[in-house]
Design goal:
single chain; 94 residues; alpha+beta; four-stranded antiparallel β-sheet; 4 strands; 28% strand; globular
Length: 94
């Protein structure tokens, strides 16, 4: 059985807030044999803590670090909206 890790960035405006007023989140999906077996969603600060935790445990944080980088660039200064795609799909086989 192979396990795939995929992730994407999400901008979810709730109510009357615009996309620029809501923080982006990284959503991760773990799949086995094509079925999602787990998912998790992180804000930038939550993902920073998760990267630290995984690193201390000796785990591969490559995909998490890439998502963190994408989150940090998507939350850039005003006027940079659109500089980072809304959906980023990265795959890793475990």
């Amino acid at each position: 059985m192979n396990e795939d890790l995929t992730w994407e960035l999400r901008h979810e405006a709730k109510g009357r807030k615009s996309r620029r007023e809501t923080p982006a989140k990284a959503r991760f999906y773990w799949k086995k044999d094509g079925q999602v077996v787990r998912s998790a969603e992180f804000t930038q600060s939550e993902l920073e803590a998760e990267c630290e935790r995984l690193s201390e445990a000796g785990k591969d944080i490559t995909q998490f670090a890439l998502a963190l980088l994408a989150l940090s660039t998507s939350a850039g200064p005003a006027g940079s909206e659109g500089a980072t795609p809304d959906r980023v799909d990265q795959r890793r086989r475990a």
